[in-house]
Structures are given as C-alpha cells and as structure tokens.
Amino acid sequence: MIRVVLPQHLRRLAEVEGEVQLDIDGQATFRSVLDALEASYPMLRGTIRDHVTQQRRPLVRFFACEQDLSHEPPDARLPDAIATGAEPFIILGAMAGG
Amino acid sequence: MSGVRVLVGTRKGAFILTADGKRKDWDVSGPLFTGWEVYHMKGSPAEPDRLYASQTSSWFGQIIQRSSDGGKTWEQPGTKPGEPTMTPEGMPMGESNKFVYDTSSGSGKPLTTHQWYDGTPHPWEFARVWHLEPSLADPDTVYAGVEDAALFRTTDGGRTWRELPGLRGHPSAGGWAPGAGGMCLHTVLLDPSHPDRIFAAISAAGAFRSDDAGQTWRPINKGLRSDQIPNPTAEVGHCVHRIAMHPSRPDVLFMQKHWDVMRSDDAGESWTEVSGNLPTDFGFPIDVHAHEPNTVYVVPIKNDSEHFVPDGKLRVYRSRTGGNEWEALTNGLPQSNCYVNVLRDAMAVDSLDSCGVYFGTTGGQVYASSDAGDTWAPIVRDLPAVLSVEVQTLP
Hints:
A: Ubiquitin-like (UB roll); five-stranded mixed beta sheet; 5 strands; B: four-stranded antiparallel beta sheet
C-alpha cells in the first residue's frame, strides 16, 4: 500500500481529505504510482504531469524520505519506505509564491 | 420576478453575485475553486443554468468546471463523483482538461513556432483557457480561447475538447507574438445572424474572422495602426484587447486596442478610429448597451506601462453616438487616490430595462449600475483581483 500526500488544491479537486492510499501491482515506481493515482482520481489527470508527454509539470515537486525526488526518471524504483507504506510519497506545488 | 446573476472570476477563486430585478440588494456566494485563478465563467444562452468555468494554475494546469444548476454545484465534465473512472472501452476518463493542439495529418496543422517577446521563434505551448464562449443554441457546445493562441471547441458539454486548427494554422501565425499577459486568444464572438461566422481576437496578433464555422480564418485588421510593430499597418501583429458587438447589429464591431478605440461597420473588413475626446485611448474592456447598439462603454487607463486609471479617478466613458463623443461617468465611483485597472473580460451588461452595466477591478471591487452608467455602487469591495465579469439576465 502506497501512501500519497496531495497538495491542498488537488485534494479539493479529488474530493479527498488526508492521505490517499493506493495499491500497486508490481514494482512501485513514479510512473506506476501516478498511473494508479490517476486511475483512481481521473480528475487529477493533467494536473501533476502533462496529458501527452507524461512529464512532471514544472512547478510540481515530488518529495519522499526527506529527499527531493522530482528529477528521478519515471521508471525509477521508489524507496522501500515508500513502497511499504512506512513513509508517504509527497506531491506538492513548488514554493514559488502564489 | 426577473433577476441577474453576475459571474466573477478572480485571481484566487470565483464568486457569484445575485440580485432581483431592482439590483439593489445582493447575495454574494463564494469563493468557488478557492486559490485558483478563474479566468472566465460564462453561462449558456440556450440553457442559463448551465455554466462553464476556466479554473487554472501555473502549478497544476487547466481545469474545466461545469454547473447545471446555476452555480450551486460544480463538476469536472466526465468525472462526476461516483461515476466510472474508465470508459467502456477501457480508456481513462478525465479528459475535460486536455487541450492538445491538433497536429493530425488529416485536419490538423503542424506545431510550428510563433514569435517570442524578443522576436525569436518560440514553440507553441498550451498555458490556459482565457475565455469560454458557449454556443448561442446548444448548451453542450462551447468555444475556448486559449494561450498560446488557438481556438478549441467542445460539443459534449466540456468532456472533450478539439482544436479548430485553421486559426493557429493561418500562414501569418509565425509572426504572432505575446502581449504582456501572454499570447492569448481572449475574445470569441458568435454572430447571431450568421451561424457560421465567428470573430476571434488575439494579443498580439489582431482580429480574425471565420465564415465557415471555424474551419478557415482570415485577419480583419485593415485600418488598425500600431506603432509598436515594424510595419504599423501590417496585416497581423496588432495587440487587440477586446471586441464587442450588439447582437441586433452584428456587422458593427467596437474594439479596444492596446492604444485606440476602433469601430467597424462591415464585420471587420475595415476599421476607423473613434477614440474622439477620451482622456487616453489605452484600455482593456469595451462593451455595448443591451438596448442601444450605438451606446458603448470603455474604461481608459493611463498608458501601456501605467495600468491604472488616469488622475486617480475611476471613470467609465460612455459614447451614445457609436464613438468619438464620450462622456465620463463618475457618480458613485472613486474620484481620488484610485489606481486600479479593469481587465479585458471584466465588464458586462444585463438586458433588463434599464440596462445594467457591471465591471470588476484589479483592486477587487465589482461595481454595478442599474441605470446604464448614470450612477454606480459597489456590489463588493474586497475580492481578490478581478479577472472577468459576466452577467446573466434571468427570467
């Protein structure tokens, strides 16, 4: 079970409170987590990564285990602590004003 | 009893202001879509409780919202809570915010480049929907003017959007350039007398017209003069800020350009300046009285870098002669220490008798006049900066 923390704006869009919990078949990667997230919450499609290129939106960041993982390749394995649910995978908007 | 519903988009959410036909006592609801920029909200003329909103963010991109009950509840078309998340064919839903330029080999146009601010080529990139224009007849059909400039259309109530690529594919597009707000298609006018005729305006490219329902387009900028481009009378490159039309006389168009207020009497074939005695002819919004096709409203601001009203005075200017002769409307508006702007989509009129006029400011005020501009009063004073104002006249 993967725990995902969404920024407030996306929690409102998805109509969820607190963390989102996802079950992933196979290896937990950035891509598989985002695929599962968008399958469960299709209103989030296009808000975290581009509809077509699947690239992370420039002002969206991925943090986990006190590290910035925003620039990891999409098919890189997530840390074990994320894959086991011990730590959350944090999606947030860049601290760039607004 | 008749009434009005004012749809206000701001930098940090949307608000809906309602009143009965007297337009004295207002109910304010919101904010909706809190924290997001709401560039535009507009109702369907064919089904007034069907509303569409452009909710956008530099962080999280574009969202389209739709209401079928006059704004009480909203949904992203195609992703209503509780509905399946996949189509029967197994395709993921949630396509209502998917604005992808049409580069298909059949009807599409290749993604070339437009000019960047410094004149260098720059690739086309979707940023946001600036303006939503619902069809006059079909509540499920809506046109979306977007940045980088292109026109999209939905025919399924906002669930999916397709580009009308003939506009972006116009041979002049490589010379289009962004205005200060980006290279946006901000004005879409549908001609009630010619169902296949659409007017569009782009900053900074100019005005365009289609006579075949958006398949092909041609620039309609003859008579415009812009000293900010190498050839001031070029076919394209003009920073048109807004165009307005009275539905009873759709061949007559009024334009607020970067500088200059213009008029066309031949559906844009040619334009004549009608700035007349305005204190400055720079501004953004322009609108036409609901019952007097020759009565026009503008809000001049100081100049292209000082985007606030001149002399600290918020003055709407009204011409009852179709331009050239303008009178300042000040009763009820601040006449000292006022330094706000009124953006291009932030003025609208209702169709009650007498005509109501509404505008929102970058300072967060929404002003209303229930007597065609003679007197004004704020409906609200302290909203986030107002991006757009639309009005619906309800039975």
